[in-house]
Design goal:
Layout (H helix, E strand, L loop, with lengths): L6 H17 L5 E7 L2 H17 L3 E9 L2 H14 L13 E8 L12 E6 L11 E4 L7 E3 L31
Parallel strand pairs: 1-3, 1-4, 2-3, 4-5
Antiparallel strand pairs: 5-6
Helix pairs in contact: 1-2
């Protein structure tokens, strides 16, 4: 790992890794990490990938940025499943875990792609419904698994929209139209 993990961070990552491996123990497996704040989500994905490697798993790690469904499927998921994604090629990659972080990975349209999902939150950010685990990373050295009354959250909370440029107002014509 790039930096030494605190005992608290390692214990939580280990708990999550064990849960993932219990439910998805073989084959090409896809794990997504997203958060309202990108940096902590990426660091969490890095550390989780490294812990899975320590547990003997072959892991391919990707940071995808802000990705739409079509691009996600075409450039990442389909090549991974087909055994053509670099690092997970052919028969040698048949027992590989793909760990990704990015934006819009946990939107409803693509949520079913993943074998396991994690949402990281900081401070007063709300948890995400429909994920395997919510993790409060306000103190990254001592993250906590976050449990919440999901009945209190609107079902579309956390749904990411595509980043679009702000439309420019058209100048009015001389006749006011």
């Amino acid at each position: 790992m790039a930096a030494e993990l605190s005992d608290e961070r390692r214990a939580l990552l280990d708990w999550i890794a064990l849960e993932f491996l219990h439910n998805s123990w073989a084959g090409r497996r896809l794990l997504a990490v997203e958060g309202a704040t990108d940096g902590p989500a990426a660091r969490f994905a890095d550390d989780l990938a490294e812990l899975l490697r320590e547990r003997g798993q072959t892991v391919v790690r990707r940071s995808l940025g802000d990705v739409d469904e079509e691009t996600l499927r075409r450039e990442t998921v389909e090549p991974f499943r087909a055994g053509t994604l670099p690092g997970a090629e052919g028969e040698a990659g048949a027992e590989t875990v793909l760990v990704v972080d990015g934006r819009r990975l946990l939107n409803d349209a693509v949520r079913g792609i993943w074998h396991f999902t994690a949402w990281t939150l900081v401070g007063d950010e709300l948890p995400k419904t429909g994920v395997n685990v919510n993790v409060d990373v306000t103190d990254e050295a001592a993250p906590k698994r976050y449990f919440y009354d999901y009945c209190a959250i609107p079902p579309s909370f956390g749904e990411r929209r595509a980043s679009t440029p702000t439309p420019q107002a058209s100048p009015a014509t001389p006749d006011g139209r």
